[in-house]
Design brief:
By secondary structure, the protein is of the alpha+beta class. The protein has six helices and six strands; from the N terminus they run αββαααββαββα. It has a domain of 124 residues. β3 and β4 form a beta hairpin. The radius of gyration is 18 Å and the shape is globular. The protein binds zinc ion.
Length: 187
């Protein structure tokens, strides 16, 4: 973690971890990739190390992020997918050159093109978003119950009844708020 920047919220699903780099969209939004090198940091943490990132590439990444957020939100509420968002996701998916590599340990690793550019990494994220929005993976898209968050997340719980994007942040805050409200009512 670099000092002076908000830390990352990392989940198990690449596409929604990426959309979580902007949190509290309906409250006081926190931008977790405010400068290009923070996107470089985020990609490195997620197995998509790139050499560098320009301001234009950061803009493209944020455009993809908000497009995934818009499309995933629509999918979660079973609305029709917004065409401009789908276009951005598809363009990003098609623009990069990344290959899935099987390691000797039996794990998947992403190999970006020799230039290891941001576009390659974004194509992996876009493809991940497509697979969850298309319903190809075991899980269900849902929206966080926190009114200031409403982030789209991928619920892989057995019962598909997860309420919050993240138990440690939104879930906890909700619990604390309820606890305080109960205390007030009891006093
Ligand atoms: Zn949330």
């Amino acid at each position: 973690m670099r000092a002076g920047f908000p830390d990352f919220r990392l989940g198990k699903v690449l596409a929604t971890s990426f959309t979580a780099t902007l949190s509290e969209r309906h409250g006081e939004a926190v931008e977790r990739i405010p400068v290009p090198h923070r996107l470089v940091d985020w990609l490195a943490v997620n197995g998509l190390a790139v050499d560098s990132c320009t301001v234009a590439q950061l803009d493209l990444a944020r455009e993809l992020r908000e497009s995934i957020h818009a499309a995933a939100t629509a999918a979660a509420i079973q609305d029709s997918l917004p065409a401009p968002a789908v276009q951005v996701i598809n363009d990003c998916s098609a623009q990069g050159r990344a290959a899935a590599i099987l390691t000797p340990e039996g794990e998947r690793r992403w190999q970006l093109s020799p230039a290891s550019c941001v576009e390659d990494a974004l194509s992996v994220i876009a493809a991940d978003a497509i697979s969850i929005i298309a319903g190809e993976r075991d899980g269900k898209l849902a929206l966080c119950a926190s009114p200031t968050c409403q982030a789209a997340f991928f619920d892989t719980s057995q019962s598909r009844t997860r309420k919050w994007c993240d138990m440690n942040t939104c879930g906890n805050r909700q619990k604390k708020a309820r606890f305080k409200a109960n205390q007030r009512n009891n006093s």
